[in-house]
């Protein structure tokens, strides 16, 4: 199984995502902010990053850009649940996010997206 990096400033969201993804049996690393995420990525073999878009300090857009600089081929799933989340998610897609998740999501949605994005990676 692979390794996933979940970046979100809300611990309860990170825990919920971890629980939702548990059936996939990937190892999961958590980062509580956008600055720590790329640092953890540099230190670990990660197959896919799930990142929130709205975080204090280093926002998701900056985080996606930092990940792309560090690992251009990294698979990224952007997440947002703010009132204008579609704007942030659209921006993330333009920066190269492979998929987006609009919060709140059904428990199966993160699993479906992770499976799809990782299987696309294997087909290339």
Mean pLDDT: 92
Question: Tally the helices: what do you get?
Answer: 5
Question: What does the overall shape look like?
Answer: globular
Count the strands? 5
Highest-level CATH class: Alpha Beta
Give the SSE order as H and E letters: EHEHEHEHEH
The tally of structural domains comes to 1
Measured on Cα atoms, how large is the radius of gyration?
13 Å
Helix content: 40-55%
Write out the strand line-up for the largest beta sheet, numbering strands in chain order: 2-1-3-4-5
Strand content: 15-25%
Termini Cα gap? 18 Å
What's the helix and strand layout?
Layout lengths: L2 E5 L3 H11 L5 E5 L4 H8 L4 E5 L7 H11 L4 E6 L4 H10 L4 E4 L5 H16 L1
Parallel strand pairs: 1-2, 1-3, 3-4, 4-5
């Amino acid at each position: 199984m692979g390794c996933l990096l979940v970046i979100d400033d809300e611990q309860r969201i990170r825990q919920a995502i971890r629980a939702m993804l548990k059936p996939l049996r990937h190892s999961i690393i958590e980062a509580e902010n956008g600055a720590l995420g790329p640092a953890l990525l540099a230190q670990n073999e990660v197959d896919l990053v799930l990142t929130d878009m709205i975080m204090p300090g280093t926002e998701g857009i900056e985080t996606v850009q930092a990940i792309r600089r560090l690992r251009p081929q990294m698979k990224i799933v952007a997440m947002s649940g703010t009132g204008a989340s579609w704007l942030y998610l659209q921006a993330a897609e333009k920066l190269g996010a492979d998929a987006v998740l609009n919060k709140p999501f059904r428990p199966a949605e993160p699993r479906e997206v992770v499976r799809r994005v990782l299987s696309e990676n294997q087909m290339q």
